[in-house]
What we know:
- The chain is of the alpha+beta class.
- It has helices at 5-34, 89-101, 110-123, 136-139, and strands at 48-59, 63-74, 126-127, 133-134, 140-149, 160-166.
- The longest helix has 30 residues, at 5-34.
- It is elongated, with a radius of gyration of 30 Å.
Amino acid sequence: MKFTRKFLIILGLLIFLGFAFSNLEIERVFAKTFTRSSPSAIDYSYEGWSFKFDNYAVKHQGKAVLDLEISYRYKNGIGKSKLINYPDFVPIYKFIDNFFVNYPNETDYWEILNKKLSESLLTKPIPTPYGINYKLADLLDSLTIKIDVKAASSDINIPRSSIVTGKPHPA
């Protein structure tokens, strides 16, 4: 089978044009795939915050030293309309400190104390210096409190922990 010069030129041109157009398509797809998304296109399906109390001394079951970690998961959509929707953690920190200072039963198990702390945070208004009270149940999907009781606390030489996760009931 013999090909004429004209046929080979046309065939070459068609192959070249096909290659060029396919490269343009590849470049368009590549640019679309790897172009930075705007923040509104990102799904923030999980957003949370945590803070700690380190070496926190309390009178509970005798003298005890604790490390506490408080972490919470915000409800979806927090901060979309106003950044003020994010609670300042300092009033929450002070609320927890006040809870320990005024806790009435020094002989409760750590697990009971932890559940009561979680319940208080999710059900009681938390005063702020901004003229409003936080209602964490309106802002959070869940709240986790980890209390690490250090060795030698309450004359027991074994470190131990209580972990509680509370979820507010829908209104």
